[in-house]
Amino acid sequence: MIRYSKNPVVRPEDVKPSAEGFKVVGAFNPAAVKFGNETLLLLRVAEECVKVKNKIRVPAYKFVNGDGIPQVLEFDKADPDVKLKDTRGVVYKGIDFLSSLSHIRIARSEDGVNFTVDDKPFIYPQNEQEKYGIEDARVTYIDGKYYINYTIVSENSWSTALSVTEDFKTHKRLGVIFYPENKDVAIFPEKVNGKYAALHRPNNSGFGKPSIWYAESPDLLHWGGHKCVAKPRDNRFESMKIGGGSSPLKTSEGWLCIYHCKGDGQRYTLFAMLLDLNEPWKILKRPEKPLIEPEADYEINGFFGNVLFTNGMVEENGRLWIYYGASDSCSCLIISTVDEILKTLK
Questions:
Q1: Which residue of 27, 153, 215, 313 is most buried, as measured by CB atoms within 10 A?
Q2: Tens of pLDDT along 63-90?
Q3: Is pTM, for the whole model, over 0.70?
């Protein structure tokens, strides 16, 4: 597991704001895919508003004729109707607003390390169900098309939606595929036992802790056959929750998954896990120690420190390029091989 020497590969300052009055504060948690001779990252770009003295300003979207128009909402700090919920939110007259909103932006590279970020968003809020932003995409190539799933957030909570593209210039929304509260969806790159398959992470608000589940579908839209795959273990790495990463990688030994764990002190680490090829809800190997944990300065310090989160990796001729978000701020790269990671599972 070798960190790229010039990490981060994308920083907030590399990204142009999507609207006047907006400021990019995060370019992280990228999906990753090979497209032609390029490597594409589908960045989660978080934006807040440029600060003005004695004012509280929050980003928002106005929805007109099926499109989302970004705007800046401004309140007087002295206004008694303004309540600061926490560092991430504002309440005005009982209505919640977030201090930052996210969308999906594409970064393009011919060598996998030097990226140019598109000037405009690729997937951004366009309806009330996406009112509070679009986050943490994953990309899966199936039968000539690229399926992109992502978390959508609104006052109705968060859920997972799906889009499809063939050119990464336009995309078609297919709708919500996992209803609230469900995220960290990773779709398998091929059918399993004649059906599409995915890992997902429903929220546990009662018994247990948020865990990784398996589901199957006849059409990528309607999902059933749910089975719990992996639960957080009683250790300092997984004490709070776990969730899937990018699309599982098929190997001769099983489906290789790299997943994230939230543990003591809200610290995020990355683990590897091997699932059975024919029954992917069965774990073959799952080490006790993480594949990698926060060590570099850009992983320890940032908007939310001590966080590693991967939802994108690219494999070429056995070489594995793992792209990940660090500290909810920037996008980074770890280079390894499939064989080396499989060795850690033995």
A1: 27
A2: 999 999 999 999 999 999 888 876 678 8
A3: yes
- HSE toward the beta carbon, residue 98, CA cutoff 13 A: 16
Q: For tokens 């009112």, name the residue.
A: 131
Site of tokens 């247990």: 208
How many domains does the chain fold into?
1
**Domain carrying residue 319:** 2-344
- Distances in whole angstroms, Cα of residue 262 to Cα of each of 210, 233, 273, 296: 10, 11, 16, 18
The radius of gyration computed from the CA coordinates of the chain, to the nearest angstrom, equals 20
- 345, 344, 325: which is closest to 10 by C-alpha? 325
- Rounded distance between C-alpha atoms, residue 226 and residue 16, angstroms: 41
Q: What is the CATH number of the domain that holds 44?
A: 2.115.10.20
Q: What is the pLDDT of residue 52?
A: 95
Count CB atoms within 10 A of the CB of residue 228: 12
Q: First and final CA of the chain: distance in angstroms?
A: 16
**pLDDT (tens digit per residue) in 288-330:** 999 999 999 999 999 999 999 999 999 988 899 999 999 999 9
Q: Which pLDDT belongs to residue 93?
A: 87
